[in-house]
Amino acid sequence: MRANYKVLIIDDNLIDQIVTKQLLRKKLGITEISTANNGKEGIQWLTNYNISAEESLIILLDIKMPEMDGFEFLLEYEMFSEELKKKTQIFMLSSTLDPNDIKRAKNSTCVKTLLSKPLPIKKFGEMIYPDAPL
């Protein structure tokens, strides 16, 4: 049985938000998708979010954003409850070629992996639904 995922896309690019939403809906059947335009809005969304017992949260996090970038978001995220963090998977989603950004993302204990834009939906689906055929 597939996990019941809710997804939060934190990205300042509206086109990327739309494309990612469509991929999640059409290819993986994920319907509960929220968006935030930067890390600050993402933190606000998490502050207001109440995770249910049977729900898991996936955050697709861009690196480069105004107001609060992905790495600043991760610093704030560390202050959330262990209960929330235990039920959350963060995937950084970026088009960065900066080796420092790539290294920071890979070294973050909060980040499951760094994926390139646009979302590689087959690879992503295999990561979140390892036992289900896609």
From TrEMBL:
Modified residues (4-aspartylphosphate): D62
Domain of life, per lineage: Bacteria
InterPro entries for the chain: CheY-like_superfamily, Sig_transdc_resp-reg_receiver, TCS_response_regulator
Domain Response regulatory: 6-132
The entry's keywords: Phosphoprotein
PROSITE patterns according to UniProt: RESPONSE_REGULATORY
Name the UniProt record assigns to this protein: Response regulator
Organism taxonomic ancestry: Bacteria, Pseudomonadati, Bacteroidota, Flavobacteriia, Flavobacteriales
